[in-house]
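sorry for the late reply, my laptop died twice this morning and i had to redo everyting from scratch. anyway the thing you sent over, i finally got around to it. pasting the sequence first so we're on the same page, its 494 residues, then the predicted structure underneath. double check i copied it right bc i was rushing
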Amino acid sequence: MPVESGSSASSRQAKQKRKSHSLSIRRTNSTEQERTGLQREMLEGQDSKLPLSLRSNLLDLFGQIEREFENLYIENIELRREIETLNDRLTAEGQTIDGGDFTKGALKAKASHSTSQLSQKLKTTYKASTSKIVSSFKATTSRAVCQLVKEYVGHRDGIWDLSVTRTQPMVLGTASADHSAMLWSIETGKCLLKYLGHAGSVNSIKFHPTEQMALTASGDQTAHIWRYTVQLPTPQPVADISTPCDDDIDFSDKDEADGDGDGPNECPSIRVSSTTLRSHQGVVIAADWLVGGKQVVTASWDRAANLYDVETSELVHSLTGHDQELTHCCTHPTQRLVVTSSRDTTFRLWDFRDPSIHSVNVFQGHTDTVTSAVFTVGDNVVSGSDDRTVKVWDLKNMRSPIATIRTDSAVNRISVSVNQRIIALPHDNRQVRLFDMSGVRLARLPRSNRQGHRRMVCCSAWCEENSSCNLFSCGFDRQAIGWNINIPALLQEK
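ok and here's the structure:
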């Protein structure tokens, strides 16, 4: 008498299972038809505002849906059984390998590879990108200490930009949408001077590297250079309100009503500039001094950046090529290099080191508006964007960024500390975060409804000199804030 093989027996069992399932489906369908008939008879005896034909159609549709779910449920049970069978088979194969067989290691490796192939593929595919994202959220054993030292209140509208002088006396400058720029005492928070020469929003302020001159850019399509003389008041003791920069602290996001604040009392003002730069056909959004302070560069919404001679106020070069409005410009601290950023998702590097050749390089690393791009003392450029990323680039190889910082909000005008090489990121969501050049997060400045910004933070600026404040931020809550940031050496090394 012939004996059935294992494969034929298993196939026969599978056919019987499928046959039994098909019979059960038929019985279910017939039972469903009887049930539907009973329900229709019950519906005829019930009171309803719907016509009987409409009710009958609805009942037919729901019956079809129920049958589809029943079929899916049966298929799901069958798939689970097949999975259990496969698991049992794999387990049985693993148990048969024992003893001192020299192929034991190879067989185990083969089985492990077959069962974890998808997992390995996912690890290989996403290892690089995941490590970059996770690097921004590394926990640190020591915490940076952030102390809110001083608030500078007096503007009547949002503050777009701020800067710190590079020479003595050390003062803070702010540029506001209220058509004014102000100079402040860093230690006392008092207004020392007010510039009222612009007819539009003041969008940028930068100080001359060696002289007491300020450069401001405005929505009135001009940039002004004006001289200032200030007398610093006697500093007063500062209250200690230090707070650890802990991202786990939950501060209230409740906004306070914006008050007008105590405006600067008897603050002297300047209404006429020493030099006016006119060539743009749109808003001048930013301006900066080239190394040496004999030339300045301006960036405008007319899609061009202009290079001017300070002494003659003549236009030297018009830097064109961006497809949309410019958002920022920055100069290298020691070389004749300029970087401009734009809403066209690119930033451009302009090289003026050779007088006969003015080269330009275009960099496409972002997917949204590049809000700012700044140089560091070394050979790096740091760019921030509305795509919620900040990228660190090497000037010697600009094909791809050497570090990428991903955040949860659009990034505005960033700044990099010269001494500590720390990047300060002001955000639309009122936060200010600190990262190192490798993309590791160091701290977040504290924010609550008692301290910190209550509106979008527009700009940040570092102060490298010995001062009670070494970081400043400004926002659309009409105030600038001076912070004292103490980064432990352990964090800087990481």
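The mean pLDDT is 80.
thats about all i looked at so far, will dig more tmrw
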